[in-house]
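Listing S7. Sequence submitted for prediction.
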Amino acid sequence: MSDGIRQMFDRISGGYDTLNHVLSARRDFAWRRKAVSMLPKRQQRILDLCGGTGDFLLAARREGISMTDSVVADFSAGMMSTLVSKGLPSGIQADALAMPFVDASFDTVLCGFGMRNLDDLERGVREIRRVLKPGGTFSTLEFFRPTTVVSKSFYGGVAPIAIPFVGRVFGSSREAYEYLVRSIRRFASSKEYASLLAREGFEEVRVKELDFGLCAAIAGRKV
């Protein structure tokens, strides 16, 4: 990720959780539960990559996933400032394209709303595969490029106006939420992303479209 993106997330970190809940009408809780439902139930070491405030890892814990020595990693130190207050270990500041973990370190890698921000998506997927154990699961929760009627209407018409406006009203950076909309519209579709995982050595790739395609959960197993 670029330094500009990192600095942007540092700036908005204070109100990030609240604003995400508002902008999604609290649907983000349900989206995380759906993504967690695609994980194996055995005890596992989890990496919450681009984990920010740790909500994805918390969702896994709430849904009864047994975990040990799990880690939140994010490029932005500011985003991880609330982890300890949520009962999570302090995070590790790390670049998703060059992680400071040895090969085959984790049973599961989670990434919620972070893959869009990588400068090189293919390289990011390869790096995730590197730190996964054989047979490990990679679960992505993301806003993919819209392809359904509902998602095209929302991200093409409503979102470019409403999301930056709400961000500004809640005291955050309007520019940051303008970036959010742009990044969604230029990102891969869920179908393209699933195909990329298959090409990069993941099998049993499953896609769950959520809320008429506004969001999607995609999981695959490392061959």
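Caption to Listing S7: primary sequence and predicted structure tokens for the chain studied. The mean pLDDT is 93. The chain has eight helices and seven strands.
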